[in-house]
Amino acid sequence: MLKLGQPVAVDVMQPLQAYDAGGRARAAAGIVQALAQAKEAGVDADTAMKLVGWNAEG
User: Please, which pLDDT band fits residue 19 given cuts at 50, 70 and 90?
Assistant: First the structure.
């Protein structure tokens, strides 16, 4: 048991504010990994992005 020397309050009633709460970091990591694998396989990234409907505007 860790003793901090002073009282500690933990708010368990507020919404989760973790970095990856919505799974966005995992999704981005998956996209980056897929692009890296496609590049290794010789697939053109621009063509792949067009096939899945990804554009620069969002």
Answer: low
